[in-house]
Structure formats: structure tokens, C-alpha cells
Amino acid sequence: MSDSDTLSCELRAHLSQLLAFDTTSRESNLALIDAIADYLAKLGIESTQIYNDERTKANLYARLGPSGNGGVMLSGHTDVVPVDGQDWSVEPFKFTESDGKCYGRGSADMKGFLACVLTALPKFVQANLRMPLHLAFSYDEEVGCLGVRSLVDHLNASLEKPAMCIIGEPTSMQPVYGHKGKVGMRCKVHGHACHSAYAPSGVNAIEYAAKLIGKITELTEPLKAQCDERFEPPYSTLQTGVIYGGSALNIVPQYCQFDMEMRYLPKMEASTTFHALEQYAHETLLPAMQKVHESARIEFESLSAYPPLLTDPQSEFANWLRQWSESSEFGTVAFGTEGGLFDEAGIATLVCGPGSMDQGHKSDEFVSVAQLNRCLAMLDNLCHWMSL
Ligand SMILES: [Zn+2]
């Protein structure tokens, strides 16, 4: 067995501890955050926990090395997606190693990366760092990058802001400089119910929702004109993903709601498209609806949103990441990260982490030992570069 196939005892211990916490986004992540804070305290690193309003979840932020602005931040989310309805052949919240692969919910997305960071930390503590190392571990990333926002506020308010950030989302250790942004919206159509035999006296919420969905399809077409070949597909997209409405065939439906999302290219304004949709709803559909019944209305509600990421792959930081990760190819990914939010805060952000999103969110999620060891090597290179 070569070194790349062997999992160190430290890494195994960290990964099995992290995987054992069920940090599905709907659950509390505090037990995991406390365990990490305890470990940091043992290494002499003070950490800050930034709680949600209910104090059921927290971000963890820590800094080591010299004080002041600058340095590198290692960032990852602590929550995982649900295992509900998935057919797992191993226990999802337990570490299982087999054939050079480490199984468990979150092993790839992204507790494998967190375990590598924790494993590498003693080296950073012993090193004579010439710049600060920041750690940013968030909650509720999987439900729309919600938790990290208070962490970004914390960094913005702090006088010690990192200059660069590496997010360890699973990219098979290939450096990534960009992804699309996303906006999720819910549309609620309130019609007017009546017996279906008198259909013209009612306002059919499903039929008006259908008109709106038709408009969404129409609005998709002009988006194709604005292309950026660095992304796949190379243009922004819109789609309706969930719908429900109505109660019985002989009742004109009172209510219908549907959820839609837009995945948009960097440098594009998602609001232009949503504005066109709202304008159609309020100026074209609503007058016709209210002519039949004045209580009819259409509401739009934001579900989640995160900005796109586009960092210059020719920047100094990108060139350093090429060296640390020992891979020269820079690319983009289809999934989103917290990177756009860090970027908005003025922190140059790139994505590079162990494992692949081919395994993320699926049953029998795994990260290979070889990928974990490549990540440890990257952190080793980073530590060396950050040291005097
Ligand atoms: Zn993730």
C-alpha cells in the first residue's frame, strides 16, 4: 500500500467523529460545533460561535497566527442533506472504510474537508505563521447558504479580515474559480372558489398559475442569448420545480402555489427577469382576475438566494492555489457555494476540496482516502507557504 492509500489515525479519528453527528440541516449542529471548539481549545486556539436566533445552530470562526488583516481562510459548512428515502448499504451517520473509500453522509460534502483541516491544524499551530489563518465553519449551507451570512457580518465588522478564502467543497481537488448564482422564489396565486358548474364566476388559481409558468418558459428564451462558455449550460436558466393547488374537480380552485428557481451567470442581474415576471402578474393577469373577484391576488416570496462566484483564475492567489493543490487545471462547477457571499465581502475566494459531487447528496456517499490525502498535502503546502 502506498501512502496515498493509507488513512492516518488522526484523520480517521476526526472524520469518524464528524460523521457521527447527524447535522442534517433541519437538526442542530451544536454538538459538532462544541466538539470542534473543544479540540481547538486543546490546541490553544480560541474560537467564536455565532448562533442563530433560536440558539439551536452556530457558525464557528477562529483565527490563529499574527493579528491584523489578510491571510487565508479555510471554509466549509457543517450541515448535510437528508438521507430520507435513500437506500444506504452502510449506516449513514457512521464512518465505514472499505476499499480505499470512506463512507458516510457528508463524507464528500463536506466533512472530509473539515476533517483534513482539523488534522492539519497542529502543524499550523507549530509553524511560525507570517499571516493569519482563519477558520470559518458554517451551518445551513444546504438550505440556501443561510448560516454563513452572520459569519460574513462578523468578518465585515472585524478589523481582521482574510484576503483569500479556500472553500473545500468537493471538486476532486481541482481548483474552481466560478459558479452560477441562484434565486429561489415561491409564487402564491389566490383565486376565488365556486362550484365548477359556474366556472366563469370563479377565479381559477391553477389556470392563472399555469399562465405564469408559461411566462417563465417564455422568459427562458432570451436568456440563451447571453452566453458564457465557461459554464455548463453556458447561459442562465429558469425552471419551475414544485406545484400544488386545487382540492376537487367540481370546485374552481381557490389557491395554487409553485416554486421556481433561476440559475444565473456572473455579471447578470437575476432581478431583471423576476421583475418582468412580476410585471406580467400584476399588470396583465391581476386586472383580469380582480374583474371577477376583487380579493384575487398574486404574491411572490423569496425562498433562498446566493450570488454567483467568479474569481480571476490568473490572479496571484489562483496561481498559488495551483501550486498548493498540485493541479494546474482551473474550472467551474454547476453547484453553488458560499463563495459569492465571501467575494461580496471583498475576500477573494476559490473552491478546492476532496471528493466529488458525483457522490454528494446520494446514498452511500463516500470520499476516497487518496482524495483526503491530496487535501492534506494541499494544506501542508499552504502551511509551508504561510510560514516564515
Ligand atoms: Zn456542500
TrEMBL record:
Top-rank lineage group of the source organism: Bacteria
Enzyme Commission (EC) number: 3.5.1.16
Signal peptide feature range: none
Claim: Cytoplasm is one of the keywords in the record: yes
Occurrences of domain Peptidase M20 dimerisation (ranges): 177-285
Cofactor: Zn(2+)
Keywords of the record: Amino-acid biosynthesis, Arginine biosynthesis, Cobalt, Cytoplasm, Hydrolase, Metal-binding, Zinc
Enzyme class: hydrolase
Molecular function (Gene Ontology), one example: acetylornithine deacetylase activity
InterPro entries: AcOrn-deacetyl, ArgE/DapE_CS, Bact_exopeptidase_dim_dom, Peptidase_M20, Peptidase_M20_dimer, Peptidase_M20A
Pfam families: M20_dimer, Peptidase_M20
Family per similarity comment: Belongs to the peptidase M20A family. ArgE subfamily.
PANTHER family, A to Z: ACETYLORNITHINE DEACETYLASE, N-ACETYL-L-CITRULLINE DEACETYLASE
NCBIfam families: AcOrn-deacetyl, PRK07522.1
Protein name (database record): Acetylornithine deacetylase
Organism from which the protein derives: Celerinatantimonas yamalensis
Taxonomic lineage: Bacteria, Pseudomonadati, Pseudomonadota, Gammaproteobacteria, Celerinatantimonadaceae
